[in-house]
Amino acid sequence: MHRHQNSGKQLISYASFCFGNLGHAAFYGVMSTYFIIFITSSMFSGVNQAVADRLIGLITGLMVLIRIVELVIDPILGNIVDNTKSRWGKFKPWILIGTLVSAVLLLVLFTGIFGLAQKSWLLFAVLFVLIYIGFDVFYSLSDVSYWGMVPALSEDSHARGIYTALGAFSGAIGWNGLTIIVVPIVTGVTFAVTGKHEEGAPGWLAFAAVISILAIICAIAVCVGTKEKHNIIRNSAKQKTSIGQVFGAIFHNDQILWPSLAYLLYSLANVITTGVLFYMYKFVIGKPEQFWIVGVIATIIGLFISPLFPILNKYIPRKWLFITGQICMAIAYVLFIVGRNNVYLMDLGLVLFNINFAQLVTVLTLTDAIEYGQLKNGQRNEAVVLAVRPMIDKFTGAVSNALVGYVAIAAGMTGTATAADMTSKDISTFNMMALYIPLVLAITSVVVFLTKVTLTEKKHAQVVEELKDKLAEGKIEKTVLNNQLRPKELEIFAPADGELMKMSSVVDENGRPFPGRGFAIKPSMGRIYAPFDGQVKFTFGTKHAFEIVSDNGLQVIVHVGLGTVNLRGESFETFYDDGQKVKKGNLLLEFDRDLALNKGYKDTVVVFYSQPQRIIKTDEVLEGTTVKHGDKVINVQFR
Prior knowledge:
This protein has 20 helices and 14 strands. It is α+β, with helices and mostly antiparallel strands. The strands form three sheets. It has an eight-stranded antiparallel sheet. It has a three-stranded antiparallel sheet with strand order 1-14-12, with no helix packed on it. β6 (545-550) and β7 (555-562) form a beta hairpin. α15 (358-377) runs parallel beside α19 (457-472). The two termini are 32 Å apart.
């Protein structure tokens, strides 16, 4: 036996998922921020300036239009992922295929479609649209699948928090690392090829190639190092969904819509500002060589923020972490506005700007909304629900691209322009779009999250408990009984030391009867043992219950304590891995009875059948009888 949370497989899974977003986020940074800079600076070198400006305007407009259209397409892509069945699961094939195809297409775009604009701008525009749509679709399949894996990797809300924090941690390094390496790579390769000290087309292509290769390596790591779990909760949901159900899953779930709106406001503010920071340093401050500082500060802060999130979240609810980050962001904007000529105020602003938990909180809230939606409508649309955040990122990325293109043209920030060419009107336009509007968006996101997002950690625990109740009542595990089959028998032994109770005597901490069929024990110790030979199929996210299936097929839930779902795993320690074969009497779990009792919960251990329709008859439970773990309690006949 070994401790579940410290298992080597779990650590490998964490590390692989973490490494995956290093390349994935860097790849997204290239497409969302640096591709438009390449377009405005180098893609049309050798093309007449007036034609180049028209092409820049045309392309940025097309990119925005394509992204808006794909707001409808992305849930459909999520549905494709949800309905995928393969020996590798439903997520891994799309992570790998999506990354490979989008990487190849991105490189084609960074060649300027092989210089086609210099020969025919019309043919260039047509091919650009087709290639960009293909690129965006395959990137979306990869992105939806990567984040959609989180609820499939664990039912444990805390473990999901760790996965998400690790993904955000490496994502921050991948994204912000671009800021550090972009100028050296682009200028270095351009100089090596052309002998010119500038950000030229050869350098941009090399930059895109390096990041594309990194993204492919990281995608392979995720596919090799993680394992999708299958359990009764996931498998009980409807497996196939129609397009109508896809959009219904989103629009009929208020706890998807409101967190998404709050994240949309944050993301708009974030990408608008990050999209023009390079221009701020190059054209407004006039020191492009200092742009690397932005990436260094963001990377350092990211190294601390993401790992701190699971720790802070143990004591501070997600809602307040989101709001704290947004307040820091708002203060950062004030510092950017009043302290542009003061290097220390600018650096402090960059620090505060990067103290943000918005993505982590949103992903976890949407992840919890999957069970919330399953409870409401019986559907578990994992990839569909988690397609919402990539949809928002794409839309805000398109807005950022449009803004950068607009600012670049309106303020003359194209081609060989320098800071000396900027006018006061140009600077004023820049301030409004890059600082004042994002400040308002950041404050509005606080208001939305504070007033409309109700799916807290405690509420999610209640949702899980309600799913358990439906399980006990046989409303989730649907079975087709064949009365021609010979009945099976199983002896169930006591999973704990204590005093036997009938199910009719079990009431929860609120005085409500416990649903379902089975028996209970008033324990004298906080140790839970296997009640028969079988396989542990899955553990509830809050660790207070697990399913064990006997060798001859009886499915049983062992539920430890009443109301203990609210402890969210605190004081529970498991000594098995989901899917592990166990023998009768093996120690499976320990829990702190005193902690549960002191918090007003009950320590009652309940054993119930997740498919009660299969039960033909059972022995009478002798209530009040004292038992030791391993003592026979009842004999069950079932089909």
